[in-house]
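Page 47, continued from p. 46.
Same chain as before, 478 aa.
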Amino acid sequence: MKGAKRLWLWFIGVNVALVGVILYSAMAPGALTKTMLLPGETSHGHYQIEMRCDVCHTEGNGIREDACLDCHAEELRLAKDTHPSSKFNDPVNAEMLATLDAQSCLTCHREHVQEQTLEMGLTMPSDYCYHCHQETLESRPSHANFAFDSCATAGCHNYHDNRALYENFLNKHASEEDFLAEMVGLVRPEKTPVFTAPNKNTAGLAAENTADISAEITADAPETFPSDPVILEEWASTAHAAAGVNCSDCHAPLTVSDTSTPNQPSETEPTWDAAVSHETCGRCHEQQLETFLQGHHGMRLAQDLSPMTPAQARLPMHVDAAHRELDCNACHTGHRFDTTFASVDACLTCHNDDHSNAFLQTSHFQAWQSELAGDSPQGSGVTCATCHMPRLEDDDGEVWVQHNQNANLRPNEKMIREVCMHCHGLAFSIDALADRELIRQCFGSSPSKHVESVDLAQSWFEEKERQKEARRKKRQSK
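Result:
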């Protein structure tokens, strides 16, 4: 009898625990156990935040139609979306909605359907372009023999973003050489440090030099904060020092708290924190933080989840980096904030895929080494960051670094204008990005494939010009 009672208690306890786990998984926003409740594998673009079901789903487990635009609206705006939902509000295009409901992102992009998910998270048959554009086969003889599902072949057309593939652009750059005579990349202005630390071992710093530096940056630090000569020397050589950024600006930044008086916020008393959060970095580096939170490296932080670690990645990563948390300091090491380290070494510390490992054998890496040695101009080298975190210029002419490393990867033709064409002609760039084996080799040689986009655009404009000339001659002969 006691054995039966004990069995029942065990059975009840197990069920209570199971129900508790299920309820916790359903209610807690970032619960790791949510993965047990997923109806299927999450796509490459969203798996990092799959524990935050509430970001995309309603309480009734429906899907929020506006969830996609919460994250991707600005990206589509910058891309000058070629198929915005507003286009289909026009009665002229209304009949097309019967073929493809282009007003809803979910028509083409659904989650948890691994068996039908293609590149770019596309979850519908890849011949979808044909169903609205059949007339192209008749109006463009050059397209007559193309397969129905080849429209989105690399280097041809993209549904949303064709900034580097539209006909006028292709024709304008049709005659470019594979390698441009001059690099046109952006270079950030250099700042002179406030202090020049002695060029010798830190342990041998002269007392007066240490005092000079220490007096400047520990004046607003707590008296109990240890004065470390190594930290002081590292800081003194940075752009932070050049800009007068002190210890307290990062470790004890003043914050604004709510007050009882409307529109009159007050500053709270700062508390010293040895760790510096990404929010603190964003106080000065707003664009960098904003874009960092949009990419795979920071998207978990954007949804109030723990930082991403290489162990959570789907790409091959180094085992010894598995538990490294990715925040600003993961690449920009504390007090030095070394952009040289962040440009290559920081990436290769984690990434262990063929593309990353092949970089060190490429001419791009050789150019980077030449720049570091002072044998080539500043900005002439090519690093991981050159391509995946390119320098951009904002409306005010300020040069800043795009920190969303996925921004120009999906589709990779996004890289053409912001990266490739700084050094290469358009046709060469398209061919290179369409060559999967070349990508695996990290562009260690010239492309072996050829995409006809530029050729077709050039032929199209030449034909139009011939027709125009024929009409002109016909008018003159009358």
